[in-house]
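We examine the record.

___
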Amino acid sequence: MSSNRDAQIGRVVDVARAEVSKSSAEHPRGSNLTKYGKWYGVNGVAWCAMFVSWVMAQAGLDVGIYGPRTAWVPDYRVWARARGRWSAGKSDVRVGDIVTFRGGKHVELVIRVSGKRFWTVGGNTSWKGRGGSFADGVFVAENERTNDTVDGTLHPFYGVTDSMVRDAQAVVGVKVDGDLGPGTIAAVKAWQKANGLTADGIPGADTWQRMKGAPADTPAAPAKPAATKPAATKPAPAPAAAAKAPAFPLPRRKGAMFFYGPASGGKTSVSGTGLNTAVPADVYRDKNGRWHSRGLAKFQERLIARGWKELERDGADGRYGDTMAKVVKQFQKTVGQPQDGKVGPETWAAAWEAPVK
């Protein structure tokens, strides 16, 4: 697996470095119009995440194993945390990793590491060297980022290929889609444990070779955690789900993070308790004149399905009240997120994908 891993990382570094230039990547300069945005299909907006997605795709390493294909920086943390591939801060930075900065507002690729120092290639940034600015630049630049504020690091599943994942999914009896997500990881772990292998949930070379030679009657791993896990002592959701989260339904605009929250939370807080002209497709008024949020109702349905009984009294009514605020904070605590009561992209995705601690 080492040679395959090294080859994958080498391609990522080569593709990223080839894009570095002191000429503007935006045409016209300052427009946010780039070939990366054109490739992604969303042009004219901040493009650092699209640049990373473009590099991974050009290196032949696309969504499902090596990180999300996305234009939204927080998606990298959501993806990595759901798969156990996230390290907080800069404590564990390696070549080929994807690092987010500024509280999850900027993202770059690591191309070199020397002791505690590391260098990255990033898009939509500036040429300022060590401690360089992240301010909405027009370049693809290489900078030393040692002294910058690092939010966290995503470690792609280098050394694993699409065929390894799909073959493993077929053996353990989960959906064969090439996505090395929480459900597949849990099932592979169970199979590895049953077959005397290190139970890390990664269908790497050793596991893959064993699976290729596995007899037809080798039992598939269960798609849910083993029943021997001690019962939770807190109001706990159901065991970790294997579902993939639907797209976060609220808009993502520069400088305005929309979320589901209390009516007192301002224009970007969608409570479902009143008209919000910023999200006309999400909020609606029923025949009795009461307002509701379609997206919030879907989130409530998911939490109810995962065992949050407190929401069953009112059901998935698409309204954010005191009970909803309490449940959201409890849920965020169980999945290791800040307990702010806001249902943004990260909390939304966790409701479908994250194992509950």
Notes: Residues 215-242 have pLDDT under 50 and may be disordered. The first helix runs from residue 2 to 18. The chain has three domains: 2-154, 162-212, 252-353. The chain has ten helices and twelve strands.
